[in-house]
Amino acid sequence: MPKKVTKAIFPVAGLGTRFLPATKSVPKEIMTLVDRPLIQYAIDEARAAGIKEFIFVTSRGKGALEDYFDHAPQLEQELRKKGKTELLDILKDTNMDSGAIAYIRQHKALGLGHAVWCARRLVGDEPFAVILPDDVIAAEKPCLQQMVEAYAETGGSMVAAMEVPPEKASSYGVLEVSEDMGDLVKVKSMVEKPAPGTAPSNLAVIGRYILSPNVLTNLNRMKSGAGGEIQLTDAIAEEIAQDQAVYGYRFSGQRFDCGSKSGFLQATVSFGLAREELRDDLSAYIRDIVNMEKAAE
Ligand code: G1P
After folding, report:
1. What pTM, to 2 d.p., does this model score?
2. Which of 132, 155, 210, 283 is the most buried (most CB within 10 A)?
3. Judging by DSSP bridges, how do beta strands 135-138 and 254-257 pair with one another?
């Protein structure tokens, strides 16, 4: 049986330029879906999958993220004085055990592969997970947990996978499949952001990974790939070239691309509708505006 996955890397060094001006002073990962920052969804998913050590790869200007996971004694004291136990409970999810969380700086924006490589000494010689907080996945069983369960059977390396419309494939890492077993596929090759019309399939990599530590060794070579960046996809593809097994996992759940404005808004509506206390108001409002739009056509 493969070694248990207990460490996860969260690459959070990106500038978030698509969300300027907001991201001038607020890290993208602190932007909220309803009332919880993107990063909280990622952490909850990691915890559900059994992750015990959380490694953040950050950059200049991400201090708010570190504060977010700290205790807030003054705020907690105020809430306690006022008897607001529900709010105190909500805050508990934001706290981490001492020593369970580490921050590493990526000093230069050299790509996702480089960001993951920056955490190599903290990962050591064991399998690890990577979660891209921009990809928010709503699922009955959290996506990484689904993958950890599948990984217990397969070992190797595994990426989350989802069919995308063919014209969108060039925005993703894309899998070439050698064996399709339903939820699980065996990967023959993978290519980062293929030029339009050249993608080997429309099965795209989504931001959840369980990786062999050997991928970090591959990253040592620092080969630059698509967009001149050091790509994680390329380091995983090298595994296949070295005869190591790489799998794609078709997760169940709905993925939102919260790195785009439209995806972020869709996630906001969807997570809003999922909340009992908001559902009636929000759905009435949506119905109204849809009717108004129809009437205006
Ligand atoms: C990254 C990965 C890509 C993957 C995508 C999923 O790309 O490099 O392989 O398909 O995340 O969201 P990015 O969206 O950061 O350009």
Report:
1. 0.94
2. 210
3. antiparallel
